[in-house]
């Protein structure tokens, strides 16, 4: 009998992200063919429309789908999740459940054992001969002890208690403010009021760093969390009469904070000396795929999917910004004066790169201006340095030109956290860029400018592809004229020939400088075309501080021929609206 080839999509949604893996099965042959990561999907938090958008960013046409999300607990939850999945994949067989189920399947398949999850939340699940026992996993209000959320909350309470008792901002508080890019402790109070579970859990690394420095409360919190998870594990083992259980530890706290895993193992060894505990490093998406097809064959793959194929890596390695610069081969041996001189002279390449792209820059300015005049918007999309430069340029338009903040927007892979710390892995997922276009409301009359030094960042290309599908105009800005071209091309392509960097691969240098200058040209010329500048004066400047009030007074004084005091009075009468005073 001929075997049937199937494509099985496994999905696990949790508090940090939603993982998916697409498995291809043909008889005894089984292999993973694609995978990705998308925003968090806790069924108790996310609404149906948002969950459907996430699902539609995944591969189409699987024959089976296993969707297992945090918060999928009751029969009503199962029905809701199944209905959403079935609407996206109407011809697929759908299996649904909790991320506990998919995690357990990844760790054990159809064998028995105890799974301990410690990520944004926490939970312990054990199974023996079909009987299941659980501990923890009651959510952030009642449980989640030993989780990232719990450690983050303990860190927040610690810094506020310390301030209440001493009136001083502690080193731990400084670390939290830096991590969140906040300036003062009172800003933290406002942040907490709006923070969700996932945001608080992102403070767990700060708690671990403080514990390593010997911070007494954070050290106690980390030790206590590991101990509690070990006690839950021992309790589940007792209820299942498992004297020598196989225990698997799964989740970000165990994977990224290995001392936490060691502490857990140590505490468990005291409570269950014969237990064997190991780390499970595979995503629960693999277990979701296994559960979706367990009636025929297990699909747990022996190996993970490579992050990129050899052709993509070869193309990236050949990019000019990845080549060694012969002029800086001995830069570490130079004096400070010679090193600075080398950097200054190297920046001369930037003006030449911009000059060579004048025609493309003109086309881009005209494209953006036309869209903005027609009621559209400009979206910058990038990852890492490129994303930060886009967000920076967009953020300066409202105060400089009095434009609404939605007119020009910046989108960065990884979101706001990526503005002040590296979250570079997020750039590898094109479906994240696709989803960003949908959720940020890109429309047919808009322009999306993708910024990527290499010209191949998956997040950016995914965003541009979706923007084109929506009907928006597209601009690609790179520092790689030798990149592989796509057909059809984007509406405008700007390739800045800045060449190799002084520090090989550090595109924050010449490529970053040229990119910033290019964005200055695009946005400023468009604003001039929209009438936001008279002569060379910012007639729509927002008056938000003393410096800008002084600038406005001098501007009105210069144009109207008034004294400084007369210009100030005129602005006060007109509510500090510069344009109405000219």
List keywords for this structure.
alpha/beta; Nucleotidyltransferase, domain 5; Rossmann fold; 4 domains; five-stranded mixed β-sheet; 46% helix; globular
The domain tally reads 4
| Top-tier CATH class of the largest domain | Alpha Beta
Q: Into which percentage range does the β-strand content fall? A: 15-25%
Contiguous runs where pLDDT drops below 50 for at least 5 residues: 296-311
The CATH architecture of the largest domain is 3-Layer(aba) Sandwich
How far is the first residue's CA from the last residue's CA? Answer: 85 Å
Number of helices: 23
CATH superfamily of the largest domain: Glucose-6-phosphate isomerase like protein, domain 1
Class computed from helices, strands and strand pairing = alpha/beta
Strand order of the largest sheet: 3-2-1-4-5
Bulk shape:
globular
What's the main sheet like?
5 strands, mixed
In the CATH scheme, what's the topology name of the largest domain?
Rossmann fold
The Cα radius of gyration reads 28 Å
Could you characterize the architecture of this molecule?
The protein has 582 residues and is α/β, with parallel strands linked by helices. It has 4 domains: 5-97 and 283-292, 2-Layer Sandwich (Nucleotidyltransferase, domain 5), CATH 3.30.420; 116-274, Nucleotidyltransferase, domain 5 (2-Layer Sandwich); 322-529, Glucose-6-phosphate isomerase like protein, domain 1 (Rossmann fold, 3-Layer(aba) Sandwich), CATH 3.40.50; 538-581, Helicase, Ruva Protein, domain 3. Helix content is 46%, strand content 16%. It has 23 helices and 17 strands. Strands 3-2-1-4-5 form a 5-stranded mixed beta sheet, with helices on both faces. The longest helix has 24 residues, at 216-239. The radius of gyration is 28 Å and the shape is globular. Mean pLDDT is 87; it is low at 296-311.
